[in-house]
Amino acid sequence: MILQSGARVAIAGAGAFGSATALILSRLGFKVTVFDPAPPGENASGVAAGMLAPAAEAVFDAVSRGHLPVLRRARDLWTAFAQDVGIALDRQGLAIEGDEAFLAKVEAALVEAGARFSRTPTGLFSDEDWRLDARSALSTLRGAAIAAGADFDARGVAAFSEGRVTLDDGEVLAFDALVVATGGGGGQGLAPELAALTPIKGQILRLETAMAEGPVLRGQGVYIAPGSRPAVGATMEAGRDDREPDPAVVEPLRIAAERLRPELAGAPSVIEVGVRASTADGLPLVGKSRVPGVILAAGARRNGWLLAPLVADMVAAYLTDADPGEDAAAFDPQRFEG
Ligand SMILES: Cc1cc2nc3c(=O)[nH]c(=O)nc-3n(C[C@H](O)[C@H](O)[C@H](O)COP(=O)(O)OP(=O)(O)OC[C@H]3O[C@@H](n4cnc5c(N)ncnc54)[C@H](O)[C@@H]3O)c2cc1C
Questions:
Q1: For position 186, what pLDDT does the model report?
Q2: 80-130, pLDDT tens digit by residue?
Q3: Cystine design at 145: which of 22, 55, 313, 325 (Cβ 3.0–4.6 Å)?
Q4: What percent of the chain has pLDDT above 90?
Q5: By percentage, how much of the chain surpasses pLDDT 70?
Q6: pLDDT at residue 185 tops 90
Q7: In whole numbers, what is the pLDDT of the chain averaged over residues?
Q8: Domain regions of the chain by residue span
Q9: Which of 24, 194, 302 should be mutated for ligand 1, with most atoms under 8 A from CB?
Q10: Residue whose CA is closest, atom 31 of ligand 1?
């Protein structure tokens, strides 16, 4: 697909993928409209802990074992991307604490993954993982995309065919291409490749008590991202796409967090819920759909923030017939077919 500057591109979804893509495409001179019926930040991108965490993901998420090289590549793009847009990156790394058996298992996984780490008096430390504030980063991205010329429209995309987008209120608008960045649900019908996605509900606790800034802390079955409202996460409820908070399901996270940091006991908290999407191999669907004119940017699992600049660059490459880079085959939207 070769689109020239000035071509009209619709994006379905204003999460990290859709917003980063809107910024990159607008700067390339495309006329971009981002459609999303949800209020800004009311999605997985808005509730995420904001970790840009290649090491933690490659070690603590079984499906992401072996993905360290691509996750590192994605993280490294953040340096220039964040500086350019004005998003603050926290590079204080990852601290891992727990009993001997847990630390031995994690150390073996870090070695197997090839992640950089050291032993410390309290456990293990890796400087590979960074962090951002997800909600404010999303708002900054949206502002930057608007400044670059993108429009945001609070309607959903119902269909795309032959250069026409049908919106959920029935209006039909002409666009040269559609980018499907619909996250963990809502895009069904826009591209057959989305059938490869499974929703994964994620609940996260935000504690209403400050915890001194420092590395993200990982223990058995839990992480704590410190700050003014520490994030304690997160559940992985495969097959669930509802956003109902469930205190009973989150309770083990609270108990695990209090075991790690007893001073957090009794802290008031709220539960926030987002729905991720995942493929069987944990990597997203990025590339051309079998539906002409449709590009996919969906299925981010636990890494949507980490992957966003990489995915936005790849979408731009597909639209302009440039080289999508070395991750094209691994992210191929048709890789689960046949
Ligand atoms: C609790 C939790 C913690 C997480 N922590 C991290 C983390 O620390 N680091 C990290 O990298 N990732 C993390 N993630 C994962 C990350 O949040 C997701 O991978 C990422 O936000 C997905 O971004 P997205 O843009 O693909 O989807 P979303 O953010 O879900 O956005 C998709 C948008 O598409 C819209 N939409 C749906 N259907 C339509 C339609 N038909 N038309 C128009 N719009 C539509 C939705 O309303 C939604 O706003 C976490 C997720 C959860 C739930």
A1: 76
A2: 999 999 999 999 999 999 999 999 999 999 999 999 999 999 999 999 999
A3: 22
A4: 95
A5: 100
A6: no
A7: 96
A8: 1-50+133-197+279-338
A9: 302
A10: 15
- Distance, CA 15 to ligand 1 centroid (Å)? 5
Query: Which residue owns the Cα nearest ligand 1 atom 38?
Result: 186
- C-beta 93 within 6 A of ligand 1: no
Kindly report the three-state secondary structure assignment for every residue of the chain: CCCCCCCEEEEECCCHHHHHHHHHHHHCCCEEEEECCCCCCCCHHHHCCCEECHHHHHHHCHHHCCCHHHHHHHHHHHHHHHHHHCCCCECCCEEECCCHHHHHHHHHHHHHHCCCCEEECCEEEECCCEECCHHHHHHHHHHHHHHCCCEEECCCEEEEECCEEEECCCCEEECCEEEECCCCCCCCCCCHHHHHCEEEEEEEEEECCCECCCCEEEECCEEEECECCCEEECCCEECCCCCCCCHHHHHHHHHHHHHHCHHHCCCCEEEEEEEEEECCCCCCEEEECCCCCEEEEECCCCCHHHHHHHHHHHHHHHHHCCCCCCCCCCCCCCCCCC
The encoded tokens of residue 277 equal 């999407």
Ligand 1 mean position to 123 CA, how many Å? 32
Q: Is 283 in the pocket of ligand 1 (CB under 6 A)?
A: no
What local confidence, expressed as pLDDT, does residue 3 receive?
A: 82
pTM: 0.98
**How close is the Cα of 177 to the center of ligand 1, in Å?**
21
**Averaged pLDDT, 19-23:** 98
Position 188 pLDDT exceeds 90? no
Confidence of residue 254 (pLDDT cuts 50, 70, 90): very high
> Given ligand 1 and candidates 23, 45, 94, 188, which is best to mutate, with the most ligand atoms within 8 Å of its CB?
45
CATH 3.50.50.60 fits 1-50+133-197+279-338, yes or no: yes
Q: Is the shortest distance between the CB of 12 and ligand 1 below 6 Å?
A: yes
Q: Is the CB of 130 under 6 A from ligand 1?
A: no
